[in-house]
Amino acid sequence: MLTYACDLAAVRAAADRIRGIVHRTPVMTSDTLDRLAGRRLYFKCENLQKVGAFKYRGASNAVLRLTDAEASRGVVTHSSGNHAQALALAARVRGVPAYIVMPKTAPAVKKAAVEGYGGIVTLCEPNLADRERTANALVERTGATLIPPFDHPDVIAGQGTAALELLEDVPDLDAIITPVGGGGLLAGCCVAARGVKPGVRVFGAEPLGADDAARSKAAGAWQPQAAPDTIADGLLTSTGQLTWPIIRDLVEGVFTVTDDEIRAAMRLVWERMKLIVEPSGAVGAAVALGDGFKSLTGVQKVGIVFSGGNVSLDKLYW
Amino acid sequence: MLTYACDLAAVRAAADRIRGIVHRTPVMTSDTLDRLAGRRLYFKCENLQKVGAFKYRGASNAVLRLTDAEASRGVVTHSSGNHAQALALAARVRGVPAYIVMPKTAPAVKKAAVEGYGGIVTLCEPNLADRERTANALVERTGATLIPPFDHPDVIAGQGTAALELLEDVPDLDAIITPVGGGGLLAGCCVAARGVKPGVRVFGAEPLGADDAARSKAAGAWQPQAAPDTIADGLLTSTGQLTWPIIRDLVEGVFTVTDDEIRAAMRLVWERMKLIVEPSGAVGAAVALGDGFKSLTGVQKVGIVFSGGNVSLDKLYW
Q1: Cα gap A56→A49, rounded to integer Å
Q2: What does CATH list as the number for A8-53+153-306?
Q3: Which residue in A212, A229, B31, B173 has a CA-CA distance of 20 to 30 Å to B61?
Q4: Hey, CA dihedral for B305, B307, B310, B312, is it positive or negative?
Q5: Which residues of B are less than 8 Å from A52 in CB distance?
Q6: Which residues of chain A does B316 touch, with a Cβ-Cβ cutoff of 8 Å?
Q7: What pLDDT digit, counting tens, does each position of A5-34 carry?
């Protein structure tokens, strides 16, 4: 039997570790979306999670797993997205420094958000080489621990706690859909859900403009994501060395949706459910409303993760 | 002892009557808003209620109180707002017709929303005289029962169930704030809250551009609202013959806020709580964040009703 970076025991341990620190988010339903999807949908509202995204689960688990000696030297990551804010808050809760490397082109509001959670921002050139060089220099100088956004066992296990809670609240789900970017959420939720309920079917939801996971599944081998182009800006990266094997072997399939479908789903959620989801967070709902997923048989009750709600309210999305 | 149009027994009976039909909405909190308000705030999320507003409580109670013979002839109201949609759905749930009189100038989207819930729309001239004439003609022709939007004992009792639930979930509240337009929500919640917890302090929240309740309280006598001018389009009307005595005698005070304060509170709720509230629904939060309310002493925990979430997503509010 293959061994993966994360198993059910690790997710259960993460759930115990982060209890009381991370919100147990509600599960919400909508008659209108059920009617449009042709089945009953249960939305796990990680948009209502602290920092507005599921990322706080994995970041908290990773920070809490450090020894006191390790933690005291702090944590490092390079990210301009939700993981950066999540790690900054998780570090502050433990009372240790978080060094966040961000490209100098990142919006001022994102830098301010990280600093609002107590993160120490270091700007770098907007390319991967300089991001990694800058982060490595910080690690060398401070002795801090690098916590990557998804390809890390403790991060994957933390994200999986969302599926544990979802199945506790709705045990008779037939399927679960989560968005997939780097794959931490999908891999963690898949291991958790199929661990507690082996027959549950797990699917990824991906924008067509960053469809590496769908292409990888079709090819049966890892494919990189070059030049992503989608409104779902949290899902641009390729899957990782630790997340891909789980997705390859345990996830049934990855469905893609267009940006127009994402926008339409996002608007429906705002209008009918009165919940703010970000484009990346609405991709699972968009899949459930699309013809491909609707044609699946034997699927009555579907859990869907609203992965985040961090959007700029200075513009309209439609 | 004065007798009012509604008492705790009526609210409790309403709660029994509408249980399972009306959502028991969640109570949500936000560390950010607590910090800004200087105390702990508990938001009763009626924006997540069916039809997106508390109005479904009162409409359901009123429709369910009718005898079978009365109900079979249907219900009538004149409204272009949330009450119209609420009454249409409440009637459909009972399987009886709802005749909704709307001004011909009402946005097409509001007419479509009422019709989406099965309401039968009759258009009239955009003035009160023609609205009442048209509604009365419908009553005469069909034998249907007029259910006004707020000044009706069963409507007031239904709205009060929101406060019953809020105090069940958070029994140690020191105060409750609700928006006030016609006063159905404020009067019902006040009777309910002070019925179960006599020491709880109840306040109204009103836009400065439609401040008849605040002026009435200041004068100790009912004042009409002429020429309202506010973004909070659900709070334009004067208080009613049944709601005003309750507000006069049992509500401690009414705080007013400017439209800029309402917009700022609304944006905070969208950004930090990821919840869509309409301008009228954010007025209670705006009061809690304002200097007047903040200067009250002895108030640690405050319940606030997010009264609705029905906004057009075709425009920005800031």
Answers
A1: 7
A2: 3.40.50.1100
A3: B173
A4: negative
A5: 274
A6: 313-316
A7: 999 999 999 999 999 999 999 999 999 999
